[in-house]
Design goal:
196 residues, mainly alpha, 56% helix
């Protein structure tokens, strides 16, 4: 079985493929989860962060491949016509992480607070934002060969959201269910000062 190559002309442009380096993109997701795993106090949650973070790196490769296939054979004139003039001047047709609006990726686009409750809520929100981004892409892009991998990536965002919900439940099971937001299990040592 040979890999399918997307051939230009196609009805999409690089601008619509935000998930590579934008604020809700695959690069930020992979860095977020792989960074958070170091302070995660529960083994099963740490393992899931590693697995999902690694999978997000594979998603980054999928999006980069789509962008490369859509732009690799374009002439300088076609790139300018497609709105890539400034990008082309800096990067040619190289893959470089930036948002659809042209803002370059930076580490401020992901969080790693070192607080398991905060981080898992951040992760759930990030997966929903990524799903919304893919929904928006699918409303605009009509090319089958672009839509199918985007649909797959969207499905994975839903699965990741559910997994992070499970990790939050696991974390809460480790904590005092009456007051599990009162301290940071990654940092604070819980002390019952009233009974000393």
């Amino acid at each position: 079985m040979t890999a399918k190559t997307i051939v230009f002309p196609c009805d999409t442009t690089y601008h619509e493929l935000l998930p590579y380096g934008g604020p809700d993109g695959e690069m930020g997701a992979s860095m977020r989860y792989l960074s958070q795993r170091y302070t995660m106090p529960y083994k099963e949650c740490k393992g899931a962060l590693t697995d999902i973070g690694t999978e997000e790196l594979a998603h980054l490769e999928i999006v980069a491949t789509i962008v490369h296939q859509l732009t690799r054979n374009l002439t300088a004139e076609q790139l300018v016509e497609q709105g890539f003039g400034p990008y082309y001047i800096d990067h040619g047709t190289g893959i470089w992480p930036q948002a659809a609006g042209g803002i370059p990726f930076n580490a401020c686009e992901f969080q790693s607070k070192g607080d398991v409750i905060t981080d898992l809520h951040e992760d759930m929100a990030a997966e929903q934002k990524a799903r919304s981004t893919y929904d928006n892409i699918l409303r605009v892009v009509k090319d089958y060969d672009v839509c199918e991998p985007i649909k797959f990536l969207r499905e994975r965002e839903v699965v990741h959201y559910q997994r992070f919900g499970e990790l939050l439940r696991i974390t809460q099971d480790h904590l005092d269910s009456r007051n599990f937001y009162a301290f940071n299990p990654e940092f604070d040592i819980r002390q019952d000062t009233c009974n000393q």
